[in-house]
Structures are given as structure tokens and as C-alpha cells.
Design a protein that fits this description.
Layout (H helix, E strand, L loop, with lengths): L4 E3 L2 E3 L3 E3 L8 H9 L6 E2 L16 E4 L2 E4 L8 H10 L6 E5 L4 H13 L7 E4 L15 H12 L6 E5 L5 H11 L6 E4 L3 E5 L1 E2 L4 E2 L7 E5 L4 H12 L7 E5 L5 H10 L3 E4 L1 H6 L2 H17 L16
Helix pairs in contact: 6-7, 7-9
The structure holds ligand RRO.
């Protein structure tokens, strides 16, 4: 079967990539993703202009059906990743994820990307980090997000997508889609972790994460229904030119198949990739291939977005 996909100028022969934040902070980790033989693309850890240690530890905790994290945007800084791109062969496309801590930081990084002729890749603006202390998730503030995008697209001409948090009300799907449809986005990536969950160790009567009193972003299979609803809800509302990267709750080929049925062009693996290691790409790809073969599907387009509803 053919698992190829395309977003803007980025063509891949396999639809899977890491979810941003997973195995993509350091040069060694990026090299691992670059050498991994199955995944079609990769994305960097969300970056800020300066390197950051992030939040105090413990800041990741494995749950029975997922994970909770409050990493706090640890990254090596914008220049480190630009240098990585200039000094490493790109066997597969690299999406650059930017997450400034202010509008000014976002604009500064995007200006540098726009002005760098050697950079022609896809960029993703993360408007949905739930874990930086004192900073709300921008994509829940529609006027602020609109302000930022208006300014960004006044100068930014390369392919740009945005990373969204999950929405939970259809009115919010309507509102964010109407806002995003004003802009020539290459894609939206949905969902980020479900922000500000809380897990408790009942024996010790204590939270499991140190930052923010234990509050953190929830990921893994427990968020799959929310992820599918967001891929589906946005696919039904966004301009067809805006592709969707489906992220959230993918642990096997069936989950990926479901994301594609909802309209995903590409699919990311987060918590499962962290827990299983990079071999997850080969396994999930094989599982998806098996399902497609059993159903007689040759292309992702044979079933992408073709979810059936009960009349
Ligand atoms: O670094 C993080 O704490 C983090 C980020 Br930037 C994000 O976008 N999503 C997430 O779950 N964690």
C-alpha cells in the first residue's frame, strides 16, 4: 500500500512523525529520528529564542492509559536548531516548532526563518503549550491568536501551520475555524495535550508532578476520543487547503486509521513513542498497512475523511 502524504511543499512516503516534544530536543535525539527508517517526517521540540531548562522535576509521569507532563518548554534555543538544520543531511523533512513566550518572541523567530533563504521547510507555531508558568494557552484566547496571526502573515510567506489545543464545544470549533480560515495556513496540528489535568498518588496523598502544584498536560490513549473529535470537527470546518496533522492517543494502527478517517493527512505519535521507543513507527505502520490491505485500500485518500455517520 501507499502511505504517502503531502503538506504544502513537504512530500512524505510515510504519514507518521513524532509528536513535538518526544525525542526531539537534542542533536542526538534528532539524529535518531532522522535515521529512523520508517517515519516520513520529524518535528523539533518547540523552541524559544533562548535555551531553557524548563520546569523542575519530576515533570513527566506515566499513567495507566497515557501520561501527564509539565515539562515547561525545555529546549536548546532557536539558534541550536537552525544550526542543526544547516549541518545535518535531511534524509526526511524536519518541521520546525516555534513557541515563543510572547508575541514578540514568536515574531522574532518567524522573521529569522522568513529571511533565511537556506530554510524552505515547514514551520509550526505552537499556540497551545499548557505548562509554562504564568502563560495561558494562546489558542484559547481567540482575539489574541487572531492578532498574532494577522501580524505573522503580514510578512511570513513560507509554509506555516499551527499547533492547537483541544476544544470541547462545537461553538469553539466554529470560532477557531472561522478565524483560521482567514489565513493561508499550510496545516493545523491537533491536538496538543489536554491542559491542566491532575494525577494523584493516593497512597502518599501527593501529586505526581512538581510544577504548578501537580497540574499538567494529559496525553496518550485516554485522549484519543478528544483528538478524533478535534480532527473531525476541524476537518469539517477548515478550508480544504489547510491540511491536518492528527495528534493524540495513537498507540496502534487502528488509532491511526481512525485519525485518517476523521481527515488527518499525517499522524503523530507522542506518549506511545516515548514509552515504546522509535520502534513504534515500524509497528504502527505495519498495523495500519495490514488494516488497509484487509479492507482493499491502496491509498490513504481511499478512506481519508470518509467517516460514516449513523443516519
Ligand atoms: O514543554 C512542555 O511542557 C509542553 C509543551 Br511546549 C507543549 O506544547 N505540550 C506539552 O504537553 N508540553
Amino acid at each position: 500500500v501507499d502511505l504517502s502524504a503531502q503538506i504544502a511543499n513537504m512530500k512524505v512516503n510515510n504519514l507518521f512523525l513524532n509528536a513535538s516534544g518526544i525525542h526531539c530536543q537534542t542533536e542526538a535525539e534528532l539524529d535518531d529520528l532522522m535515521q529512523e527508517p520508517v517515519s516520513g517526517a520529524m518535528v523539533t521540540k518547540s523552541m524559544t529564542p533562548q535555551s531553557r531548562f524548563g520546569n523542575p522535576l519530576p515533570r513527566y509521569y506515566r499513567l495507566a492509559n497515557g501520561s501527564i507532563n509539565s515539562m515547561g518548554l525545555p529546549n536548546e534555543g532557536f539558534d541550536y536548531y537552525m544550526d542543526y538544520l544547516k549541518t545535518h543531511d535531511q534524509i526526511k523533512p524536519v518541521i520546525v516548532s516555534v513557541a515563543g513566550r510572547s508575541k514578540e518572541e514568536d515574531l522574532a523567530m518567524l522573521h529569522t526563518l522568513q529571511d533565511d533563504d537556506s530554510y524552505q521547510g515547514l514551520t509550526e507555531l505552537n499556540l497551545s503549550c499548557p505548562n509554562v508558568i504564568g502563560e495561558p494557552q494562546m489558542a484559547y484566547d481567540f482575539p489574541a491568536a487572531n492578532d498574532l496571526l494577522k501580524e505573522v502573515f503580514s510578512f511570513y510567506k513560507k509554509p506555516l501551520g499551527i499547533k492547537l489545543p483541544p476544544y470541547f464545544d462545537l461553538v469553539h470549533f466554529d470560532q477557531i475555524a472561522e478565524l483560521l480560515n482567514q489565513y493561508p495556513l499550510s496545516h493545523v496540528n491537533t491536538i496538543n495535550s489536554i491542559g491542566n489535568g491532575l494525577w494523584i498518588d493516593v497512597n502518599s496523598e501527593t501529586v505526581v508532578l512538581k510544577p504548578k502544584g501537580g497540574f499538567g498536560g494529559v496525553g496518550g490513549s485516554m485522549v484519543l476520543p478528544t483528538a478524533l473529535a478535534n480532527v473531525r470537527g476541524l476537518r469539517q470546518r477548515l478550508n480544504p487547503s489547510i491540511k491536518i496533522i492528527g495528534t493524540g492517543g495513537v498507540t496502534n494502527g487502528r488509532d491511526a486509521f481512525a485519525h485518517i478517517l476523521c481527515g488527518a493527512e499525517m499522524v503523530s505519535i507522542g506518549t506511545q513513542l516515548y514509552e515504546e521507543g522509535l520502534g513504534a513507527f515500524e509497528r504502527v505502520t505495519r498495523e495500519l498497512t495490514d488494516i488497509m490491505e484487509a479492507k482493499g485500500y491502496e491509498l490513504l485518500a481511499d478512506f481519508r475523511g470518509k467517516l460514516k455517520v449513523i443516519e
